[in-house]
Amino acid sequence: MAVIAVTGSVTHRYRAERGLLRLAVELEGDDRSSVVDDAVAVHNRVTEQATTLRRQGAATWWTARSVSVGPVTEPVAIDGTRASSVRYRTRSTIEVRFQDFTALTDWVGELAHVEGVTIEGVEWSLGHARRAEVEQDARLAAVADAVARASDYADALGLGAPELQAVYEPGLRPGEGGAGGVPFMASRSMMAGSSVDASGSVVFDLQPDDIEVTATISADFTA
């Protein structure tokens, strides 16, 4: 009786269903009160628009979880002195998850013209319900791949049908380091260009690449 140890892996690709837009409101100036007041005005303008987008169904949720306000540490000059004036900086972060990519593109184009707003990027993903479904599909396909590999080796060696002894997720095989694995999901690169909308304004043309869902297992068979 021979022991056949194999790996099984699969990568499935799906169209993105959600786009998480990451924003920052950053302002700097010499007068602390003015900087704070201006930052609050811009921040509230953005969050009010985010609330409207959620109510309209274009976005599924939004959050504003951090804010910082304080003096800017000026670099030391060659002679060891610092600037005599004190400058102040504010920064707040906002995240908005979209399911309507046209609305996302339009809003990015609008925010790009707002003083103090930094667009830090878009993270693409699947919806929560869909994610659980595709992760299960990937696990099943990885096991099927392992079974097929074991059968191929058994046939090539003139052995009988292989019988499964054990299945391991990454990191769980005895003597193998690392943490236990779950299907890996990754958003590939986002292509960005520019186009002109119906009103004649130039807007960013966002084209997310597919979401990759990968699962890998190892298995022991006897034949």
Strands, count: 10
CATH topology title of the largest domain: Alpha-Beta Plaits
Label the structural class.
alpha+beta
Mean pLDDT: 88
Number of helices: 3
- The low-confidence parts are 188-200
Task: Give the termini distance in whole angstroms.
Answer: 6 Å
Tell me roughly what share of residues is in helical segments. Answer: 25-40%
Spell the H/E element sequence: EEHEEHEHEEEEE
Radius of gyration (Å): 26 Å
DSSP strand (E) fraction? 35-45%
Global geometry = elongated
> In CATH, what is the class of the largest domain?
Alpha Beta
Q: Structurally, how many domains make up the residues?
A: 2
CATH architecture assignment name of the largest domain: 2-Layer Sandwich
Biggest pleated-sheet summary: 4 strands, antiparallel
Characterization of the model:
The chain folds into two domains: 107 residues, Translation Initiation Factor IF3 (2-Layer Sandwich), CATH 3.30.110; 108 residues, Alpha-Beta Plaits, CATH 3.30.70.360. The strands form three sheets. Strands 1, 6, 7 and 10 form a four-stranded antiparallel sheet that branches. A four-stranded antiparallel sheet has the order 3-4-2-5. About 6% of the residues have low confidence. With 223 residues, it is α+β, with helices and mostly antiparallel strands. 29% of the residues lie in helices and 42% in strands. It has three helices and ten strands; from the N terminus they run ββαββαβαβββββ. The longest helix has 29 residues.
